[in-house]
Amino acid sequence: MPFPGKAPCFTGSLSTWFPPLSLRSSPYDIMISQACPLPSGYIGAQAGPESAHPRPVPPGANQGLMKGDKRKEPGPDPEPAAPQQPTEEEEALIEFHRSYRELFEFFCNNTTIHGAIRLVCSQHNRMKTAFWAVLWLCTFGMMYWQFGLLFQEYFSYPVSLNINLNSDKLVFPAVSICTLNPYRYTEIKEELEELDRITEQTLFDLYKFNSSNTLVAPARGRRDLREALPHPLQRLPVSAPPHAARSARSATSSVRDNNPKVNRKDWKIGFQLCNQNKSDCFYQTYSSGVDAVREWYRFHYINILARRQDTSPSLEEDALGKFIFACRFNQVSCNEANYSHFHHPIYGNCYTFNDKNSSNLWMSSMPGVNHGLSLTLRTEQNDFIPLVSTVTGARVMVHGQNEPAFMDDGGFNLRPGVETSISMSKEAVDRLGDNYGDCTENGSEIPVENLYLTKYTQQVCIHSCFQESMIRECGCAYIFYPRPHNVDFCDYRKHDSWGYCYYKLQDAFSSDRLGCFTKCRKPCSVTMYKLSAGYSRWPSVTSQDWVFEMLSRQNNYTIKDKRNGVAKLNIFFKELNYKTNSESPSVTMVTLLSNLGGQWSLWFGSSVLSVVEMAELVFDLLAITFLMLIRRVRSRYWSPGRGGRAGQEVASASAPPLPSHFCPHPASPSSSLPGPAPAPALAAPPPAYATLGPPSSPSPSGSAAASNPAYTPEEA
Questions:
Q1: SS3 assignment, position 551
Q2: Are the beta carbons of 273 and 231 closer than 8 angstroms?
Q3: Cα distance between residue 281 and residue 272, in whole Å
Q4: φ, ψ at 175 (rounded to 5°)
Q5: Which among 91, 385, 495, 685 counts the fewest CB atoms within 10 Å?
Q6: Is 712 within 8 Å of 72 (Cβ atoms)?
Q7: What is the rounded CA–CA span in Å between residue 340 and residue 357?
Q8: Which letter does DSSP use for residue 695 in this model?
């Protein structure tokens, strides 16, 4: 029980506030004490050198003994017990070093990183210490510079190209072939004939060329026909070059031109196109009259063709027999289940062999011309629409089963009277997507709708993108590409300015201002067929008579021009070996870790555990800093019963710890009484307050204090 007028005495340390986390022998772990009153009758050892000798018991010390107490015999007092030495604190869950220097020395002495121990073993030689410190820091910097290069290479996502050569049975690709004869539909036959007559009149007006012996109408009638169609074909003057430029060109020519002079016409052929309100117009011109007439005729032909509800004509039963005289694959004749039909506005009737709709896909188990597709074709022109198609023969394209046939982009023409042998080699490409390359798996993330409803290819995406731009800008769909539902094909009777819009979009599309080539990424998996062609005259001069005779009798058809009426096509694999080009990451995570470990071992000769040691060092630094800040703030603001001076003492790192757990008793000026000079302060152990009697009972301390001249109120 504390004495009246005195503050309660307690001892302890800040480590008792944080039992799990303590600083080992930290200077901050100082004792906290207050003035402790000594109980009466307690004889303590005197501080100082004399404390080793016992003090004599003053007379009258026996006074005040209770009844039954045994009086001690006078004699020399037993030696006081030695002060309790501070024992080592119990080991905490986590212990930290008491200073940064101690932590650094411990790390350098125990780490597995090469060169770190030289920072402390040569500390008595400042030059060596400085040398090794600079060398260690430079090595550390070089290593992390190499680390930066390795990470830069990794995050650039390089790829390696792996080429594999495989050999197996191959699926024969799809083969599309067209007649090059545009079809004359029955419901628009009259409009096409009218267009032919207007074209003939245009040729006569421009070139004075009469292309039909039946055209005998008067000039007025011919002019009326021409005015019946919008966007007439016109001859446009071209400004002549300046006279100075012509003189300069003549002066630079020192060699006499032996060729006869040609009277060049200073004009071009074209037709005018305007926008909706006629505020902007331009001429679509061509330097070649053939190109101008063909494009102008094609423009009007598209408008007439768009008036049909169904652009695919019904296939006649003998249409295939009139075009293909013979068909064999792997020495077996073809049947109707092996092909499908579609119509192209320019190339006419087209047939696709071995497409996805075939009952059984063709397989090639042997290379060579005898194990491929062999076709005998009729290439004689029926003169369906001569101004649309100006070539003779057939159009062929090789493509995948799930890909549409883009006859304009990837097709080639067959020459009549020639046997064309196409040898193929398959090649597959597998690209890496995501961060390694700009490709797409199936086109689902491409912001362009697939109008072809087939497998995604870059051509499918580009054509669909252009069709979307046509619908958005012009309000109608281009007839060469599929259209969405509830959208009409472009026709100047319904959309009078679509030609102006189309040619403007075509120019923007060619320069990629529409963004179609940017939006449409390459597919990650592509199967290609590399073709090589060989040509020979067929049939030969010695065999053409019986060959033509057999073809005529078998197909019940008389060939007028034998040499230009037939052609033969052979398509086959030249070998069953096919090449696969696949991409793989050049720097994987395993490669990166291996390179980082190699650099770490090169510069410091350590391993992954050394990295853990570095992480532990950083953690210890942060933990010690955090605990010091917490103790400083707690001692300054939250210490109970302590003032600002006590907080400063606790926060001071230079305050030495007390030698023991004794409580000092500072002198109190308010209780000082005149008397002899005070003795040195007594260092007493904490009193056992439980043994003290109640305040009302007589205390032996009074007599002890009265009989002990060395005890003064200042000491209390």
A1: helix
A2: yes
A3: 7
A4: -125, 120
A5: 91
A6: no
A7: 8
A8: T
* CA separation for the pair 339, 352 (Å, rounded): 5
- The residue whose two tokens read 């549409």 is 404
Q: How far apart are CA 682 and CA 704, in angstroms?
A: 15
Mean pLDDT by 10 residues, the chain (716 residues): 43 43 42 41 41 46 46 52 52 71 85 81 79 89 93 93 91 92 75 85 80 47 54 74 44 38 60 87 84 88 80 55 86 86 86 84 91 89 70 91 90 91 94 90 90 91 94 92 89 88 92 91 93 90 82 70 82 93 93 91 84 88 89 78 48 43 41 45 49 45 39 39
Alpha-carbon span 37 to 716, nearest angstrom: 5
Q: Pairing mode, if any, of strands 267-274 and 281-286? A: antiparallel
Quote the CA–CA distance of 358 and 340 in Å, as a whole number. Answer: 8
Beta bridge partners of 177: 351, 396
The conformation of residue 687, written as its DSSP 8-state character, comes to P
Report yes or no: 121 and 566 within 8 Å, Cβ to Cβ: no
Q: Please answer whether residues 613 and 112 qualify as being in contact, where contact means their C-beta atoms are separated by less than 8 angstroms.
A: yes
Hey, what are 682's tokens? 């007594």
- One-character DSSP codes across 616-662: HHHHHHHHHHHHHHHHHHHHHHS-TT--HHHHHHHH-TTPPPPSSSP
What's the sign of the alpha-carbon dihedral 435, 436, 437, 443?
negative
Q: What is the enclosing helix (H) or strand (E) of 144?
A: helix 126-155
Tokens of 683: 């260092």
The 10 Å Cβ neighbour count of residue 654 is 5
Burial of 302 (0-12, 13-18, 19+ CB in 10 A): buried
Tell me the sheet residues that pair with 333: 328
Instruction: Give the position of tokens 């652009």.
Output: 311
- In which residue are the tokens 């031109």 written? 257
| DSSP conformation class of 332 | E
Q: Which two tokens stand for residue 436?
A: 């390694």
Residue from 389, 229, 408, 192 nearest 305 by CA: 192
Q: Is the peptide bond before 260 cis (omega within 30 degrees of 0)?
A: no
Full DSSP string of 348-415? EEEEEES-TTSSS--EE-S-SGGGSEEEEEE-----SSTTT----SEEEEEE-TTS---HHHH-EEEP
Q: Hey, what long-range contacts does 403-410 have (CB within 8 A, 24 or more apart)?
A: 403/174, 403/454, 403/455, 403/457, 403/460, 404/452, 404/454, 404/460, 405/174, 405/176, 405/342, 405/350, 405/352, 406/459, 406/463, 407/176, 407/178, 407/344, 407/347, 407/350, 408/346, 409/459
Q: Which H helix or E strand runs over 505? A: helix 498-510
